[in-house]
């Protein structure tokens, strides 16, 4: 039994505490402070980097990439990752990269600065073994482009599209791709309804997004991913591993901090991908642990 099992008394108590707004705010602020401290302890200049980014004209960069017709689902308006406006804010967008380095530092204790790279490379080893030469790739929930660029590095000949629901994140992704001279198409849309053509991709990849979604949204995205894939194409997910003993052994205090920044974590941990993906039109998935906390899921479109 994991720490996130719905009928676990400690989970119920944590959920009760987080339902008290002052306590929830305190937990989020504490979690954020811990991330900043960890980042700067491993040599990631969180505050300096964000200060530098804030000098740029971000509103000017957001306008060309934003689709004004996009409807934001209710779940997307909730506070995420200690940001009251969730992913619809510049604060969140400008801190994504440094936060990733901090959060993933403990995946490689001997080289904490390399934890994020280790997380992505362990996922990509699974992809390359099962999907050697995709020609067209969609990175669902691409955020500011870290996962997109990592995919481009292992599949340099592929045509890559990065899709995200946050125009703030996409503005930063476009800036990052300009700075790195990357050729990526950025698309502002919900993963549930992308407006992209059916059967147009060989690989749809989703890194670290499903633990941020309610189950209904996840199921809709599975169906949309199947629509986007050509027959025989692959859907790949990298995300937290509910079966990892790390979560079952997590101290209640740390678990409370984690839950304060991840409002849909219980739903994600209850989602059975072995049954959900075949129901959406995929083969039975292969599920492979990749780090002490993460897993890779790969399924093929029937």
Précis, in short:
This protein has 302 residues and is α/β, with parallel strands linked by helices. The chain contains 13 helices and seven strands. Helix content is 47%, strand content 15%.
Topology:
Blueprint: H1 9-18, H2 21-41, H3 46-53, H4 58-65, H5 90-103, H6 115-130, E1 136-140, H7 146-154, E2 159-164, H8 167-180, E3 185-188, E4 201-207, H9 215-228, E5 229-240, H10 245-248, H11 252-261, H12 265-270, H13 273-279, E6 286-289, E7 294-300
Parallel strand pairs: 1-2, 1-4, 2-3, 4-5
Antiparallel strand pairs: 5-7, 6-7
Give the tags.
302 residues, seven-stranded mixed β-sheet, 47% helix, disordered N terminus, 13 helices
Helix content: 40-55%
**Strand order, sheet with most strands:** 3-2-1-4-5-7-6
Sheet having the most strands: 7 strands, mixed
Large-scale geometry: globular
Please tell me the overall pLDDT.
Answer: 90
CATH superfamily: Vaccinia Virus protein VP39
SSE string: HHHHHHEHEHEEHEHHHHEE
How many structural domains does the protein architecture include?
Answer: 1
CATH-assigned fold name: Rossmann fold
Our Rg estimate from Cα atoms comes to 18 Å
Oligomer: single chain
The CATH class is identified as Alpha Beta
Task: State the helix count.
Answer: 13
Overall structural class, as computed from helix and strand content, comes to alpha/beta
Low-pLDDT residue intervals, each spanning 5 or more residues = 1-7
Question: How many beta-strand segments?
Answer: 7
CATH architecture term: 3-Layer(aba) Sandwich
Q: Indicate the proportion of strand residues.
A: 5-15%
